[in-house]
Write the structure tokens for this entry.
Amino acid sequence: MKAVVRLDKYLADMGAGTRSAVKEAIRRGLVTVNGRTVCAPETKVHIETDAVCCDGRPVSYVSYEYYMLNKPAGVISATQDLRERTVLDLIDAKCRRDLFPVGRLDKDTEGLLLITNDGDLAHRLLSPKKHVSKLYYAKLDGCVDAADVSAFEAGLAVDEQLQALPAHLTILSADKDAHTSEVLVEIHEGKFHQIKRMFEAVGKTVIGLKRLTMGSLHLDERLLPGQYRTLTKEELELLKSGTDAFRKAAEKMCGSDVAAALNAGKSMTLEAAFNGIEAVIFDLDGTLVDSMWMWKDIDIEYLGRFGIAMPDDLQDAIAGISVTQTARYFKTRFGIKDSIGQIIDDWNQMALEKYTYEVPLKSGAREFLKWLKYRHIPCAIATSNSRELTRAVLESHNLNDAFDVILTGEDIHKGKPDPDVYIAAAGRLKLDPKRCLVFEDIPFGIMAAKAAGMRTIAVKDGDSVSDEHQKRSLADGYICDYYDLFCRFYEELKQ
């Protein structure tokens, strides 16, 4: 972005009005630069140093803006259209006017779309030479099989115009009776209607399509269709660096079999990464669901009822321990006269609504659970949370049938890092703990799984950022979210 721009462009870019509207405002003397009224639209403005006001309101200039949009079906990927609603129509009118979508999703395709005004970044993400990976979920009319997976991996001859690059196809489900399939497909190019054309070439029809990732950028599950948010600093840095988020994390993994498999890239399948694993066990909060953000709020609200300010060390003090242990801790430390049962009941009431209506799954968790079920790999939950709240969040996401065993803090009274809950889960599954793979988000949980003799993969969570180094050093592997388990890494072609 140039350091000096025309005043009318400055104001129009920042959403102060259309180009003609801001020109009129300038001519009417409603605009000042550094406190002086300016009446010439072509006046040059230094975007980093000049102070601009329009109709008495300061207008700050931001060179580049970056938004993640969850594109809904029925909206076209364009900046403007006389007949159709565009993706930019979903962005707040107060935002700048030089934004554009990076790439295009078909009108009926949903999911991740980057909206920005950074042309250089858009070029790097879309350049055929860069082979930026893109992961899609597709629902198909037709049963996908191993032959289709091999055809995609080899590079599919789609039609006379398209010889596709190797793509990775993961089957999530295949219903022969209904003649439908659910799959994930990762491609490294972006031809016209490419996903639909690829499946048509193997005799299937796409009946639902959603983009989940683009390079290191993964769709935020908290965004409903049509919603958007600004990219985080970390997301932007990874996107600009051209480094896949998981690949970067994998460089810091421990040298276990799973870590090596997940880091092996193109030649390694997801199935190979699970070689020898007969069951998968999940912690709940911060691992399977994105819920850790709510507990601090509940602690603040609960202690506030007694006129007590929440201590800075509280979250660390109760990390990993069971609900009952936490209630005892609150009762002793804060002198609360209510019974242990009453304290837990109060917390449950405060949390129940959030778990039922507000807590989302971790990105890719639903797809990963479908993949495990399709391959007949049993799953369990081993959580310190209560049975009621665990049931509420699973029911809200229709996941009760995804788990063969569910153990809560009410079943096992010793909290993590004690390994009892994981040992009990393996016992319920009737498996050797060494054959179990655990997903955890906090050090105490990882320590508990390791003490039980299980292989572990740490899951990134925004509420345990300060523990990242410890999580990486304790666990056998690390993922940013569950889509990382499906994505493949291909070497960029040499220029």
DSSP finds 18 helices and 23 strands in the chain.
